Amino acid sequence: MSLEKAVDILRYADRQKKCVVGFDAFNMETIKWIIDTAEEEQIPVILMIYPGDKKIMPLSTFAAVTRDLAAKVKTPVGLMLDHGPDFATTMEAVRGGFSSMMIDTSHLDFEENVRQTAEVVKTCHALGIDVEGELGHVGVASNEADYKNADNFTRVDKAVEFIERTGVDILAISIGTAHGSYVSAPKLDLERLEQINAATDIPLVLHGGTGVPEDQLKAAFARGINKLNYATGYKLKLYAVAKEIMERGEIRPRMSDLVMAMEQPMHEFLRGIMRLAWPE
């Protein structure tokens, strides 16, 4: 199956009352393990790359590898730039072959966020590319105020206005999560989520999924979250699995042997995250 637009995958998830995981990957193995697991489970998935990781794999190469592997499976696979910081970076991803885009200028004031997001949407829509925007800044989990101060959360009225003025296809919202590893347990504002979901008609995204208690995630999925971004947890698990295998000393000291030994435990990890968001 060829790549599918993220918005189409997420609309399908919404009709099924389920959630799709958007995983951040950064090289061939981390892409392949995600797609292979999704195919085994017959669960849709979205492959993403954080702009900083283009130092490891250029955006065009990431797109080419994902597109090639997606063509070999039957499961719907999306391809999206994660947290595009500006117009120039999103256009680099467009030229590289990305089929979906995220522009994140949520750290700016509302009017500037609207202006820059709308600029990306206008160009991408002309090229048949769907766009995710963000409103209500999702900060860093090492700063407790970023995910516990309700002033940072998405306002319902502003979400409606933002969608109308920018034309975004997908909206990432802030309801009590942050990126990275939390210094204290997050508590999602599920009532706010219900209100935003009732007032809008596009797929909603929860960033900062790593470390959120499973019961809260399930409650968020049931209340309208159609995409869960998962980056930190994947990268931490990759490191932990590699470290454990090397410390056991059961493989030859070859990078190729390490990669092959990591495959099965990473499949098991990815399977668990996918099944959480997309239960039978």
Task: Tell me what you see in this structure.
- This protein is an alpha/beta fold and 280 residues long.
- It has a single domain (6-234), classed as Aldolase class I (TIM Barrel, Alpha-Beta Barrel).
- Helix content is 49%, strand content 13%.
- The protein contains eleven helices and eight strands.
- The protein has helices at 6-15, 28-41, 59-70, 87-96, 110-126, 144-148, 156-166, 190-199, 214-222, 232-248, 255-277; strands at residues 20-24, 45-49, 77-81, 100-102, 130-135, 170-173, 204-206, 225-230.
- An eight-stranded parallel β-sheet has the order 3-2-1-8-7-6-5-4, with helices on both faces.
- Helix 2 links the parallel strand 1 (20-24) and strand 2 (45-49).
Main structural class: alpha/beta
What is the strand arrangement across the widest sheet? 3-2-1-8-7-6-5-4
Radius of gyration: 18 Å
The arrangement of helices and strands along the chain is HEHEHEHEHEHHEHEHEHH
CATH homology superfamily name: Aldolase class I
Strand content: 5-15%
End-to-end gap: 22 Å
CATH class (first level) name: Alpha Beta
Total count of helical runs of at least 4 residues: 11
Shape: globular
How helical, in percent, are the residues? 40-55%
List how many beta strands DSSP finds.
8
| Biggest pleated-sheet summary | 8 strands, parallel
